[in-house]
UniProtKB/TrEMBL annotation:
Name of this protein: NAD(P)H-dependent oxidoreductase
Domain Nitroreductase: 10-186
Entry keyword set: Flavoprotein, FMN, NAD, NADP, Oxidoreductase
Family: Belongs to the nitroreductase family.
Cited Pfam families: Nitroreductase (PF00881)
């Protein structure tokens, strides 16, 4: 745990990446697995994760992300896109997957599936989209923690125009919406931000024990 906390102190929202340094295939695979294993409500994972390596696509994305240099300088760009139309078929697919993975009759999961449908599918479209978008932040948390363990820098970003990214990536046709993005790579030695002291609330300010 001491290493975990040390790595959390090491990480920061990198402002300038070294464009000459690339994440290895092995490390990228580890990060993808960390995202895949992330917790989500009911285990549904109502999102897709798009890894953008193509420099031309990233150049198109940059203006839609307020011109931030990390978009093109980082080794990789990850887009977390939440599902905009979650319906009974998504629940049925998930229940079927549980049945297969755990080798149990799908019929025995019918009540659980109906319960999820009653809590999720019945939500308004706006509430449903907010809920699926929240799930992407859980996946981002796993990415941040895993990357810190590998000494890979990650900058989570909410500074972008979702509608523009959706159009560039063709997400509307897939019933997806850009919830958040993250750039991955290695900090540039000229990025002065890496030397700033981490500013967080004190334990006394942050926690309430009842």
């Amino acid at each position: 745990m001491s290493n975990f906390l040390e790595n959390q102190n090491w990480r920061y929202a990198t402002k300038k990446f070294d464009a000459t340094k690339k994440i290895s295939k092995e490390d990228l695979k580890t990060l993808k697995e960390a995202i895949r294993l992330s917790s989500s409500s009911y285990g549904l994972q109502p999102y897709k994760v798009i890894i953008v390596e193509n420099p031309e696509i990233r150049a198109k994305i940059q203006p839609a992300a307020w011109g931030q240099s990390q978009i093109t300088e980082a080794s990789h760009l990850i887009v977390f896109a939440n599902k905009t139309k979650l319906d009974n078929s998504d629940i049925d697919e998930y229940v079927s997957n549980i049945s297969t993975v755990r080798n149990i009759p799908v019929e025995s999961l019918a009540a659980y599936g109906d319960f999820m449908k009653s809590k999720i599918v019945t939500l308004s479209d706006d509430s449903k989209n907010i809920w699926t978008s929240k799930q992407t932040y859980l996946a981002l948390g796993n990415l941040l923690n895993a990357a810190a363990e590998l000494k890979i820098d990650v900058t989570p970003m909410e500074g972008f125009v979702p509608e523009q990214l959706n159009e560039i990536l063709g997400l509307d046709k897939l019933n997806l919406n850009t919830s958040l993005i993250a750039t991955l790579g290695y900090r540039h030695e000229e990025d002065a931000t890496q030397h700033y002291k981490k500013v967080r609330k004190s334990e006394e300010e942050l926690f309430i024990t009842l």
